[in-house]
Amino acid sequence: MAYVIQGETGDWELVIGLEVHAQVISKSKLFSGASTLFGGEPNTQVSLVDAAMPGMLPVINEYCIEQAVRTGLGLKAAINLTSVFARKNYFYADLPQGYQISQYEHPIVGEGEVILDMPDGSTRTVGIERLHLEQDAGKSLHDQHPTKSFIDLNRSGVALMEIVSKPDMRSPEEAAAYVTKLRSILRYLGTCDGNMAEGSMRCDANVSVRKSGEPYRTRAEIKNVNSIRFLQQAIEYEARRQIDLYEEGGQVVQETRLFDSNKGETRSMRSKEHAHDYRYFPDPDLLPLVLTQGFVDHIKAGLPELPDEKKDRFMRDYGLSPYDAGVLVAEQANADFFEAVAKGRDPKLACNWVMGDFAAAMNRLGRSIDNPPVSAADLGGLIDLIADNTISGRIAKEVFELMVETGKGPAAIVEEKGLRQVTDTGAIESSIDAVLAANGDKVAEYRSGKDKLFGFFVGQVMKATGGKANPALVNEILKKKLG
Amino acid sequence: MSLDKNRVRTIANLARLEVRDDELDHLAGELSNIIHFVEQLAEVNTDGVAPMTSVANMELPRRVDEVTDGGCQDKILANAPEQQDGFFLVPKVVE
Question: Could you write out the three-class secondary structure of B30-81?
Answer without folding.
Answer: HHHHHHHHHHHHHHCCCCCCCCCCCCCCCCCCEECCCCCECCCHHHHHCCCC
